[in-house]
Records
---
Amino acid sequence: MSVLPRRFQRIKHVLNSRMGDLTVLIEGVNKPHNLSAIIRTCDGAGVFQANFICDHNEVKTFNSTAQGSQKWVNLRNHESYLKATKTLKKEGFKLYGTSLNENSIDYRDFDFTESTCFVLGAEKWGLSNELNAQVDESIYIPMNGMVQSLNVSVAGAILLFEAVRQRKSKGLIPSKGEGLNQDEYEKTLFEWTYPELINYYKKSNKDYPCLNENGEIYK
Ligand code: SAM
């Protein structure tokens, strides 16, 4: 089993610039096209992992809007909003809740170059009060129209790409895999290169093998 060298170089190039310290936490967004659009944006922005709040390990449905991007962004489920916020805070993320309430602050007033998690809410209701109470800051994107809010995936894109813009201007976008820890990097490199072998290694409880510079498996 092998991989084309060009494909392996492309996989490495993308993985090398993934950021483990930029993410989203998604609460109650259920429409497949919105979820798909958010994940596609995460992929395009260089987000390594996106977080969801789903009880019972519900499987999220993605449609063609995702263009397969769900394969390239790690999807992490949390059973409850409390578990999600506790985990993310422990990992050092600052939680930016998005809401249009009067206590929210214009997103352009913030620095998103440190560990940042944008918390996005449901299409109809927005973020729950419970989750809102857990965030570190409430931010909003100023609106000038008759309609009060943006589509959730559009709001997510504006915020993520603002974080990318700020990081780029400070030379903080990784280029050699430094945005991830070594184990995470090696594991993901194998899984992206040989997705068809993941189950085999998991079932047989074996460690993933090493890859050489051309992406070939060596024993
Ligand atoms: N009525 C809901 C509310 O008051 O929050 C509107 C929900 S909006 C359609 C869905 C999600 O998109 C929100 O929870 C938020 O995450 C995001 N969003 C939409 N417009 C936004 C804006 N102008 N600023 C920040 N987030 C926004």
---
Amino acid sequence: MEKNIHSRLLIIGSGPAGYTAGVYGARAMLNPTLIQGIQPGGQLTITTEVENWPGMKEVQGPDLMIQMSEHAAAAGTNLISDHINKLDLSKRPFEALGDSGTLYTGDALILATGAQAKWLGLESENNFKGFGVSACATCDGFFYKGEEIIVVGGGNTAVEEALFLTKFASKVTLIHRRDTLKAEKILQQRLHKNEKISVRWFHELEEVIGTESPKGVSGVRIKNIKTGVKTTMSCKGVFIAIGHAPASELLSGQLDLHMGGYVATKADSTETSIPGVFAAGDLTDHIYRQAVTSAGMGCMAALEAEKFLSHSE
Ligand code: FAD
Ligand code: NAP
């Protein structure tokens, strides 16, 4: 294993932002190195149909991400399977240390580490994670054939997860803390039409109930936040779909973050508070958080990195 890999452009993250930066960076002859992380392809690898990627009426998320990785590699990006556990943005070139022990250095750096699923933070949720509690319907839905399932959340992810889970479950109940959904109208329409799905408005999950031996979920206790009335429901699976938080832990104290951990960038730009470090995709976007906007920012970041490198030469 090589212990030091230097590139003019180092990209961290392999979602739509990272791969698009790879395509543009390679075509600008920057010979980029892209570190894929523990989720090669990013968040779209844990979903099924993607219906809003322009040019494709419908594509499976994992297939789209394989195509993007092949595109970045064909353009000349060096894709590396590693996970960065330490970053030093105070040095030039910038340094990133991988779990493999390799030190990656870059004259310019694009951060595209995306976002990770949020959890409610309940002790019982944590206890049953992997034993009936999940944040990924495409990964775990199959285990709940003929069973009752609850999904918590009211955004696009929650509604898509609920719809997807009806392929396996006998019944899906969506638990939402308000009486309106954030999800796109077309998804809401599909949700309300689906006879297997019911919605409990103004409810929150209080506790996941289950057994320790064998370990598994048998139900949940939910609370009506208007009346305070608590209800117990039986179910075998609990899917938490309450949004995502930016993966910026490695950056804390090194560059400007805002809005709860998103990387702050200059207006109409992917430039961060450190010259030569650019941020793209869900790591910096607290508003749109879409594949297409992430890809757009990946393109911007590579073009801006190219400009930065040519000016600094
Ligand atoms: P991500 O896709 O989050 O990728 C982040 C990458 O960074 C990963 O490859 C990860 O391995 C890597 N990484 C993280 N930390 C490190 C590290 N320390 N070292 C190295 N690598 C690291 N959007 C749509 O437009 N249409 C949809 O239909 C759609 N469906 C979705 C369904 C679900 C279930 C979810 C969760 C999201 C969906 N989205 C959809 C949103 C979309 O997936 C995101 O907006 C998009 O993936 C963000 O891209 P990104 O490149 O910023 O980061
Ligand atoms: P989101 O849009 O942030 O929605 C999170 C949902 O969870 C909201 O309904 C929120 O309630 C609820 N919630 C948050 N914290 C909660 C808590 N502690 N307890 C109970 N409920 C809580 O997140 P998302 O659905 O994961 O979507 C993330 C991004 O990815 C969005 O930009 C979305 O458009 C995108 N995405 C797109 C697609 C698509 O295009 N098809 C699919 C999936 C995701 P409130 O409504 O009360 O705030």
